[in-house]
């Protein structure tokens, strides 16, 4: 089946999450991705559990649809091999700390001279410019700097990290859209270009509602638990046996909720709840009033009643419940595949369902250095030269 990015050649020198997630998605869409791992131990996630037959599940999750090399870039031969790959590449992705690529001789200016059409994407904690550019930065530091941790959690509680590495994934998504934009530009007759992506910038760009409140009224986002900053009821509520989510955030839904679900007609004339803005201002009071009603029945009772009345609602799942939900399964968000060492494996599916060029799982994540010989043969190396590279600790 045809895929949108067939023919695109990507060289991936990134590791851990943001860069590998970006190149995984490009591979899912048909790009030929070569992951070049550092000598001798490879991507840092190879040393992170859980393990299946000594292979890291974390590594396998974000490195599917790639071929893999293990290359010593501190050796002259290793750099020479990378240069050969670059000359034929469309895209290069790296996430070294700013300044490291210059020392290695793989900075943008150097590689651009070899391949003017190269799209070079750097992903770092704080970006390539600015007073913090040389600092190392992980997802949790980005969550702290972007204000995300300070606005997450329950009122008067400690700052809370979002449950996933949200800035890493935000940076990956920013890199994907930027690479594709640059690729389209090049297809229209343009040249390659440099892309500077930072974890902080990428996550900060997602705080659009919070920015509107600050720029518009000078409001600094506070912790609101599950509540929305500008709409109510729109949050999680306790029931007799758990918690559910209710989103009756416009006037029509609010009226239906009051009349048909909780049977509280008096709330429609309560001066605290007359408009969405007033309900948001009095969200804590409204939460108590709603929960006083909801704790009388279990979650399923309310979810069925809300569904019948067309009010957006849903459960609050544990992660295992999410992965076993029939809707998630029907949407093919869990894929089964075979790994040469791990055996029968599962991974997450493709969130976008393209009718003509869908994502495909063609190959599992590579073993360390699995495709060294295959790739070197494509570059013109014979068996004798490859044996020499092994002995000189250039490849593994």
Topology:
Elements: E1 9-12, H1 18-28, E2 32-38, E3 51-52, E4 55-56, H2 57-61, E5 66-71, H3 76-87, E6 91-94, H4 100-104, H5 108-114, E7 119-124, H6 139-145, H7 166-187, E8 194-198, H8 199-204, H9 208-217, E9 234-238, E10 243-247, H10 251-261, H11 276-281, H12 283-294, H13 299-308, E11 313-315, H14 319-324, H15 326-330, E12 334-339, E13 343-348, H16 372-378, H17 383-391
Parallel strand pairs: 1-2, 1-6, 2-5, 6-7, 7-8
Antiparallel strand pairs: 3-4, 9-10, 10-11, 12-13
Helix pairs in contact: 1-7
InterPro entries: CoA-transferase_III_domain (IPR050483), CoA-Trfase_fam_III (IPR003673), CoA-Trfase_III_dom3_sf (IPR044855), CoA-Trfase_III_dom_1_sf (IPR023606)
GO molecular function, one term: CoA-transferase activity
Protein name: Formyl-CoA transferase
How would you portray this structure in words?
Keywords: Transferase. InterPro entries: CoA-transferase_III_domain, CoA-Trfase_fam_III, CoA-Trfase_III_dom3_sf, CoA-Trfase_III_dom_1_sf. This is Formyl-CoA transferase. GO terms for molecular function: CoA-transferase activity. By secondary structure, the chain is α/β, with parallel strands linked by helices. It has 2 domains: 9-206 and 331-391, 3-Layer(aba) Sandwich (Rossmann fold), CATH 3.40.50.10540; 234-316, formyl-coa transferase, domain 3 (2-Layer Sandwich), CATH 3.30.1540.10. The protein is built from 17 helices and 13 strands. It has a 6-stranded parallel β-sheet, with helices on both faces. A 3-stranded antiparallel β-sheet has the order 9-10-11, covered by helices on one side. Helix 1 packs across helix 7. The protein is elongated. The chain starts with 8 loop residues before the first strand and ends in a 5-residue tail after the last helix.
């Amino acid at each position: 089946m045809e895929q949108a990015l067939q023919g695109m050649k990507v060289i991936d020198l990134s590791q851990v999450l943001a860069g590998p997630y970006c190149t995984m998605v490009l591979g899912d869409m048909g790009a030929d991705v070569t992951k070049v791992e550092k000598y001798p131990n490879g991507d840092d996630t190879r040393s992170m559990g859980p393990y299946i037959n000594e292979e890291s599940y974390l590594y396998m999750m974000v490195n599917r649809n790639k071929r893999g090399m293990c290359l010593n870039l501190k050796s002259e031969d290793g750099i020479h091999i990378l240069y050969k790959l670059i000359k034929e590449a469309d895209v290069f992705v790296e996430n070294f700390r700013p300044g490291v690529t210059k020392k290695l001789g793989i900075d943008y200016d150097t590689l651009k001279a070899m391949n003017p059409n190269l799209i070079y994407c750097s992903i770092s904690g704080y970006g390539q410019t600015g007073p913090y550019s040389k600092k190392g930065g992980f997802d949790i530091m980005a969550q702290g700097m972007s204000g995300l941790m300070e606005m997450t959690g329950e009122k008067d509680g400690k700052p809370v990290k979002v449950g996933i590495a949200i800035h890493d994934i935000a940076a990956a998504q920013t890199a994907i859209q930027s690479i594709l934009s640059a690729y389209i530009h090049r297809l229209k007759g343009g040249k390659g270009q440099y892309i500077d992506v930072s974890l902080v910038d990428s996550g900060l760009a997602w705080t659009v509602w919070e920015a509107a409140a600050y720029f518009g009224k000078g409001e600094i986002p506070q912790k609101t638990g599950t509540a929305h900053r500008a709409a109510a009821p729109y949050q999680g509520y306790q029931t007799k046996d758990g918690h559910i989510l209710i989103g009756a955030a416009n006037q029509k839904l609010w009226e239906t909720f009051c009349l048909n679900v909780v049977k509280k007609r008096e709330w429609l004339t309560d001066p605290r709840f007359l408009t969405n803005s007033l309900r948001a201002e009095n969200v804590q009071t409204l939460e108590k009033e709603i929960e006083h009603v909801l704790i009388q029945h279990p979650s399923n009772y309310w979810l069925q009643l809300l569904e019948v009345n067309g009010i957006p609602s849903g459960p609050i799942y544990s992660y295992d419940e999410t992965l076993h939900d029939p809707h998630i399964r029907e949407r093919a968000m869990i894929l089964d595949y075979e790994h040469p060492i791990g055996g029968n494996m599962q991974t997450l599916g493709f969130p976008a369902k393209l009718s003509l060029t869908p994502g495909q799982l063609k190959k599992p994540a590579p073993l360390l250095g699995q495709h060294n010989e295959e790739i070197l043969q494509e570059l013109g190396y014979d068996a004798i030269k490859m044996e020499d590279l092994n002995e000189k600790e250039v490849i593994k």
